[in-house]
Amino acid sequence: MKQRFFLTLLFSFWLIVNAQINLSYEENKSLTYEETIEAYELLASKYKSAELKTVGSTDSGLPLHLFVMDSHGDFNPARTQQRNKRVLLVNNGIHPGEPCGIDASIEWAEELLRNDDPLLKNTVVLIIPVYNVGGMLNRGCCFRANQDGPEMHGFRGNAKNLDLNRDFVKCDSRNARSFTTLFQQWNPDVFVDTHTTNGADYSYTMTLIAPNSGKMYSLLGAITDRELVPFLYSRMEELGYPMAPYVSTRKGTPESGIMHYPDSPRYSSGYVNLFHSLGFTAEAHMLKPFAERVKATKALLQALLEMTDQRGEIIAQLRAKAAGHTSEAREVELNHRVDTTTHDIFRFKGYEVEYRTSKVTGTEQRYYNTSKPYEKDVPWYRTLVPDLTVNLPDYYIIPQAWTEVVELLRLNGVQVKELRADTELSVDVMYITDYQSSARPYEGHYLHHEVQIRQERKELPFRAGDFVIRTNQPTNQYLAHVLDPRSEDSFFCWNFFDAILMQKEYFSPYLFDTEVERILEEDPGLKARFLAKKKDPDFASDVWQQLAFIYQRSKWYEPTHNRYPVVGFNGSFPDNLVR
Questions:
Q1: 359 and 399 share a domain?
Q2: Is the same domain home to 56 and 80?
Q3: Number of domains forming the structure of the chain
Q4: Cis omega before residue 574 (within 30°)?
Q5: pTM, entire model
Q6: Which of 97, 226, 369, 375 sits at 20 to 30 Å (Cα–Cα) from 170?
Q7: Does residue 7 have a pLDDT over 50?
């Protein structure tokens, strides 16, 4: 009996050791979700320096997985930080119709583990096998109309039909909340999200959105521009995959100029930048064969690991300085845009653009003539400038009614305290004076933009349990981006505070009309503004507008209409007032 048990155990061990991962990307095939997880389970069972974890839920009902490679065989983020090891996080399948990173990561991980690669000595590698699980399960042949393979692939929308690469601030999905938790726990030094492009045709198999120094702590931005990104371009050339910046064109073609993609915090790379993680987006070219895209993605992952290994210590030091600087800084820049008044030059390998008349529409259509390659200098617009710089208050105060907002702040590592007792404070208040909203829903929201405010100093009451956030934290950049309503990815713009935009109390015109006479007699200044406004024919012909104009400037008008509930407080709290 014992002999049979031993033989069974030995046979099981033999099966594990000799089991193979079967990748078929050379045949234009990508792994299914089940095959992907099975591949990582096999690697975790085969190598002591690997573990496959579940790190939360997804909207599909299935868990989010995280594959960890640590040469110490210790898969705890706290002990990783104690050992002063660097962390590289790879995110795959956020858009499962772009699966080159899914297949590339498996082959790359297997080679690192099989060779006991010394690059794992100082760096822990984290791989999210599939982020958008629901989208990968929604598998078909034809979601990517212009992409060269694979034969079957997933869908961009997740189980709730959300594009998860627009969800990192608003966190509408369980996927995003799970990601936020693991990101805050592991605090990766380097992050990469693997994608496939849309757009122009050119010779490169891989293009890259790199961290932009215009949005970074100066010293960290300097080393990124001068050392890290040049290393990646050079190394990719050596590995046989010359690389270009992600081809976002200024006027339709690469020759018109390549524009840096100013990834705001709704996107993965923009989100991680708020915490001084070096966020990269890999964009393999859609018109190259799937097998080539997989190989190019694998090469970039290798280059990123080598970069992290070689420059990891200085990256860690500058990230720590960046966090300290952020804790002390009193200003934060928001809403970065590309400065088109200045540019660098990139030596670009493309194809001549020609035009022909479409037989379908009868209009002129652009195409790229691949029989006419060129190599020429093109403008590279990569300088970012902020549209807005805001001053941080000493504290933000958020009434306890807005618990969903505070829940997200805490999820993102923000230290939040509460008032112990009712109190009245002199605070800086913002009123929303104007904004535009998208005409159609965008990722489940009617996104606001072009937000205008008016600021006032007011004495307001607060209650025990209201939330207090001191702005001396490494999360200050995140705080400003989500709490200032003018930020393009603020909670206000994502409709978290829309209730304040609706007036709740009104008047009856036939009764208020007589009250208006008295109000105007007692307030000559208001009367003068009213009479001036009546020179507008549309206003003069609209009784409701006229009465509303006076009502909104009277004591009857509700003071909370359009008043943004998050306020700023400058000063200090008594020790016994905040817990």
A1: no
A2: yes
A3: 3
A4: no
A5: 0.94
A6: 97
A7: no
**361 and 243, same structural domain?**
yes
- 222 and 106 together in one domain: yes
Asked if 201 and 240 sit in the same domain, the reply is: yes
What H or E segment, with its residue span, contains residue 523? none
pLDDT category, 575, cuts 50, 70, 90?
confident
Confirm if 16 and 45 have CB atoms less than 8 A apart.
yes
Q: Is residue 575 part of a domain?
A: no
- The encoded tokens of residue 564 equal 């943004």
Q: Which range of residues forms the domain containing residue 404?
A: 386-503+561-569
Residue type, 329: A
Query: How far is residue 23's CA from residue 8's CA, in Å, rounded to a whole number?
Result: 28
SS3 at position 273: helix
Interacting residues of 499 by C-beta distance below 8 A, sequence separation 6+: none
> DSSP letter at 438?
-
Predicted local confidence at residue 19, as pLDDT: 62
What is the CATH classification number for the domain harbouring 279?
3.40.630.10
pLDDT value of position 20: 80
pLDDT score, position 16: 47
Q: Phi and psi (nearest 5°) for 219?
A: -70, -35
Counting residues of the chain whose pLDDT is more than 70, the rounded percentage is 97
In whole angstroms, give the CA distance from residue 455 to residue 335: 20
- Residues 198 and 311 occupy one common structural domain: yes
Taking the chain, what is the end-to-end CA distance rounded to the nearest angstrom?
64
Mean predicted confidence (pLDDT) in 286-307: 98
455 and 355 belong to one structural domain? no
Contact 192, 206 (CB under 8 A): no
Asked if residue 356 belongs to a domain, the reply is yes
CB 54 within 8 A of CB 63: yes
- Block residue for tokens 């990834």: 263
Cα–Cα dist 230/208, whole Å: 12
Has residue 526 got a pLDDT over 60? yes
Rounded Cα gap, residues 333 and 325, in angstroms: 14
Tokens of 52: 């496959």
* Helix, strand and coil percent figures for the chain, each rounded to 5: 35, 25, 40
Has residue 358 been placed in a domain?
yes
Q: Copy the structure tokens of residue 535.
A: 């020179």
Nearest to 92, CA basis, from 244, 294, 275, 257: 294
Within a domain: 478: yes
Listing DSSP states for 120-173 in one string gives GSSEEEEEES-S-HHHHHS-BS-S-TT----SSB--SS-TTS--GGG-TTT--S
Side chain identity at residue 556, one-letter code = W
